Amino acid sequence: MSLPTHVRLVEVGPRDGLQNEAQPITVADKVRLVDDLSEAGLSYIEVGSFVSPKWVPQMAGSAEVFSAIKQRAGVTYAALAPNLRGFEDALAAGVKEVAVFAAASEAFSQRNINCSISESLKRFEPIMDAAHAHGIRVRGYVSCVLGCPYEGKVNAEQVAPVAKALHDMGCYEVSLGDTLGSGTAGDTRRLFEVVAQQVPRAQLAGHFHDTYGQALANVYASLLEGIHVFDSSVAGLGGCPYAKGATGNIATEDVLYLLQGLGIETGIDLDRLIAAGQRISQVLGRANGSRVAKAHSAQ
Ligand SMILES: CC(C)(COP(=O)([O-])OP(=O)([O-])OC[C@H]1O[C@@H](n2cnc3c(N)ncnc32)[C@H](O)[C@@H]1OP(=O)([O-])[O-])[C@@H](O)C(=O)NCCC(=O)NCCSC(=O)C[C@@](C)(O)CC(=O)[O-]
């Protein structure tokens, strides 16, 4: 399969990245991050989550963040909603696109959203109805597509029915998440080959954590499988509160560098993106997780 000429990057740093930080982060710092990212040319930014603050305290100020960001034309600002309550809160905050999130592993589903996979899919149905009524687009996630922190190996055959269920209920795109970051390029190719029998490749995305250092190879393997949407996190921020030891998502800077080397367009300015990542890393007082940003600042 030939490589795409254009790739869309879904920036999940403000949500998937910051949700895992133990220290308090001010609304102003979150807003600055989102604005820096839109100014760097990201066209899709996951800004926050409308989840229980008891489960993920760091996302508690998401409505305030939405009301303070500079919303640029052509940029999608999205939020996670685990249930109808979350969807309604997102709607009240002016959110125009939401994401629902299921898992391919029962144990992770219980730890993350306190219900079984089938209960979660039932819970999403009223969200889909309400979203349809309000003209809101819904993206879907499947976590633990290549491994589960509680159950170990996850087969592509476990992932495909969950992805299909999300697609069938109206998610316009389903992002397959290697939450644990343990998958290899071979696993990734097989995953897309199997899932693409149920959901068109053009409606699938890759979401890779870099715990085992395989994320960039997995992006390349996905490109070879005809996937052209990837989730990534500036400065490699994050992890998952319910996947102990999992590191951040693949750094947006590193994916962008790979794509530029392949002549694939994204519309993102690498220098501005690196500056955004450096700034949030300083705010958090942690090393920048992007290899490209580190190399750039060493020059
Ligand atoms: C789904 C629930 C709410 C179920 O949690 P529950 O305890 O079963 O829910 P409940 O309906 O029994 O409600 C319990 C309390 O939460 C409140 N509540 C109920 N819903 C909401 C809401 N929407 N917003 C705010 N508050 C809410 C509700 O009002 C009640 O408050 P109380 O009476 O105790 O004061 C909970 O498990 C939860 O919020 N989980 C979120 C977990 C999460 O955000 N995980 C991280 C995102 S997923 C991820 O990172 C993976 C991904 C997407 O990046 C891909 C990958 O890498 O794999």
TrEMBL record:
State the top-level EC class. Answer: lyase
Q: Any idea which UniProt keywords this protein has?
A: Lyase
Q: What is its EC number?
A: 4.1.3.4
Q: What is the protein's given name?
A: Hydroxymethylglutaryl-CoA lyase
